[in-house]
Amino acid sequence: VKDRIVLEIGGMTCAACSQNVEKVLKRLKGVSSASVNITTGRAHVEYNSSLVSIDEIRKAVDGIGYSASLPA
Ligand code: 9UX
What we know:
With 72 residues, this protein is α+β, with helices and mostly antiparallel strands. It contains two helices and four strands; from the N terminus they run E-H-E-E-H-E.
């Protein structure tokens, strides 16, 4: 089953930041695609919820110095 989530990423100040976030997301087991838009500050993630949780996804982003939260 493929799930999708949109996360609001905090702390991105340059275009390379979005690449950093994308990379760490794609490295997660269970994440099949990740795309981060520096302009909107949002990440679109496709993942398998039986392999990885939203919390794990958020923690991975947190772990490289950015924040990830559910859009208000
Ligand atoms: Mo965007 Mo950079 O961080 O060291 S300001 S990649």
